[in-house]
Specification:
Chain lengths: 149, 292, 200
Amino acid sequence: MARSKATDPPADLLGPVQGEVSWFCCGTAWGPCSSTGKGACGTCNSGSLQHAWPNTSDACWSITRPDRCGVSLSRRTCGYRHRVTALCSGASVVTAIADCGPQTDLFCGERSCCGATCADNRLIDLTPAAYSQIASLSSGLRPVEISSA
Amino acid sequence: MHGIAASQPYVIAFFLLWAGLMKLLSRRMRAQAGRTALARLSGPARAVPALRLVGLGELAVAAALLLPPLHLLDAVAAALLSAGFLVYLAYASVAAPASSCGCLGTHSRPVDVRAFARAGLLLAAALLTALGTRPAAPGAGAPGTVTGVQAGLEAGVKAGVKAADGLAAPVPAVIVLEVIVLLALSAELDRYWLTPLRRLLVRLRRPLAAPPQERVPLEASLHLLRRSPAYCSAAAGLTSDVLETWDEDGMRFVVYGARDRTAVFAVPLSGDDPGAVRVALVAEPPLSGSPA
Amino acid sequence: MRSRRDVLRSAVLGGGAGVVAATAMGSLGPEAAFAAQKTAQKVEPGAPDPDFAEGRIRSIKDNTLLVLGSNLVFHTIRVVDGTSLWKLGPVPFDAARPGDGLYARGVRMPDGMLAAESVWLNIVNIRGHIKNIAGQTLRLDHNGHEVLCHVVPGKSVAIHSESPPTADLSMLKVSQHVQILGAWRPDTNEVDIATVFSPH
């Protein structure tokens, strides 16, 4: 597992940060998603333009631990807006924080590429509604750029 | 059978010591207190103090069981604690089904049938201890009253003891078996024996070692496609997922909708060079076709 | 179908008639899209996206799916020739069955119907620890719930970070954390695997 010292200050403070994005379901749902619940903010729904962020609180950070992958991210709370831009297509979506996640440290060092552009580490998870605006749900994982909206 | 009953306080005390020390000393367990069902019961802010309180209670009962003389009250306290565990587990499985129990250590799995079985076994051991414990004689210390119910139960135990004596059960073997069963029911220990065992079996049996497939899975081609510069150049215009694919002349053709046009990609079936993927946009509306 | 495939094949391999070069499309390049992102988003962040639907198919009539959303809102989804359907891979319309879960993206019509561009049937994207591997199945611990994940020969692949996808899933280990993208078998805790994403 590629673990290294976290960057200081947070990588996303001064400008956009690149990482991997996946999607997750939340709210009322079918199948294995039905037990997920409405997320850490209590507002999460698969059909809304929302996302999960690894640093919404101390408790959240202790679960996701992006610092173990060498990435420090700013504390952003429920409702904060990020813009996620697919690195190759340039398609983007602005979403609001509704949950804590992803568990960055469990996939430390993972890399996704598109053309000559690559991004490391899972830094954000989108709801299906948001993810499907910038990529196909069947792709599962894409490299993106994340910035404050 | 007397030997089995006499050994139960030590078995129970062992597990209570383990549980109590983990709750009081494990920093990781305190860090994860917020994710246990106890946090749901006590409120997240009071999860750590509640964990410590339960730990102290477990240590106190363990000490009472270990320090002679063994009193009926000690066994009753152990039985009440075990019954409390069962009630707590039932609460956890209903009120916080996704939370871990925070019983003997740190693991994130929620309460399952094994946790109930372990708590039930501990309760049975505590009851056996209570029934096998002679109440203290009046004037010899703390009061102990034998109720009619207990007298009846004791008579039952004695009858059972006689029957068991007839079987001449090897007491140490039964106790070892009991401890092994209790340990095996502890999900907290799975990573030390169950996971390595499963890994070993997987290594020996190689269950997923599939014979080489003649056909390249579509997902493998799509992964190469998504990594390609050709896909990058056209991805912003794609409006659908894959509409149609077919294989021809060593290439896999993949068709997407691109608004009122069709995007067709040619992905080599052999090799792993994203640069070899080609794309064209055809000025005709997409038609869905049967997948290859 | 054959002749159409010939047209598409010759277009991508040899510049047949009717081909529009990607560069000639102008707006398709990423630079243009990055510029276009400055335009305001139609839907407020955090709000439900009207061009997206989620739920389970109640009935199918002609080319229309009647879907009951998990939030108990009904959606009428129209599937046309240009609509892609996914169910462990691209499938024709007749693969859709009542009871299937779905996500759909398209364009919401004034009459409330969703004209679908993409429909994903039973798609799930779950993360968890592999509890056990036996036969052609993985037992996944997903948020404390066991999900039985089936390897489908010829379809399931594993992606180990940067390595090319492989149909050989024997590198997966008990207790490792993975992401599984697959198709749920309705009303069960079972999933057919499309892709296993493994960080190592």
